[in-house]
Amino acid sequence: MFCFCANFALADSALTVLGKDYVFLNAIEGLPAKLSDFKDLEINVFTTSDDVRLAYWEAGQGKPLVFIPGWSANGAEYVNVLYLLSKKYHVYVLDPRNQGLSQRVDYGNRISRYAVDLKEFAGHEGFTSADYCGWSMGASMLWSYVDLFGTKGIRKLAFIDEPISIYAHADWNEQERLDAGGMTSSPERMIRAFTQGTPVSSLIADMKIMERFAAMDSPYYQNSEGFAWSFIRNDSEYLKLILFDHVTNDWRDVIRHKIRVPAAIFTGEYSINVSSQKWMQSVIPGAKLYVYTKAEQGDHFLAFENPLKFTSDLETFLDQ
Q1: How many CA atoms lie within 13 A of 232 on its CB side?
Q2: For residues 233 and 98, is the Cβ–Cβ distance under 8 A?
Q3: DSSP state of 301
């Protein structure tokens, strides 16, 4: 298991940082059979203004394209996405604090601080203009970024299947809940369910997302998850520090009024978020909505379960 102190040197190859090769479970044409086949994949690190060492994965050359993982996720899970898109772009995946290979800390665990981390990462890399794609909580980080800093320096945005307000307010009607994507009436009980496996009624929190994760019915996803599980260990005590803030934010005003760059939204028929993603498309001028079918692995994990379609669709959007 890799040490999470993120004390490796700058610009080290992934093979050097992780210390050993990895053979993927499924041999898939057009994708690496083992880690060492992905020769230009690097894992690097920078230090934030509040002294947290954040790791990031990168590969390729060209226009910068930055991915922000969801809660508990990391750059290892993007290995197929990185490989496919690095043929055309300089692709980055930033591990948020307390996730992936980034440092574990008990401070700064608010979405607003995570957005500052992203801003400081862009400054570290010297971006004047970049494309950004946030998945799940990573989309919330982008919404916070836009709220705090606007869209200067952002060329295009993509969001993957994130509710606009996870917490469903008690005084909302059903349409308001659907438009916002509200999936819990008790943040505390949802957090216990996600971090401790505590059973929870579907009336309190919608846990269908975990059913799709457990299915693991895509060979692409089996490869990327197996890779991540081999090198990265999450600590639920640190992971849960961000969750209450994450769950209780409502981003409807930001999405309605502040996103004025080209945007793409990805969701799927298995997802509980389709209604909220359609609402988002309706209020962002010119936004493009991709709704994957069940046959296309259209759920919360679509980018990893169907990376060939996802990267093709994202590339088409970015190149338009």
Answers
A1: 25
A2: no
A3: T
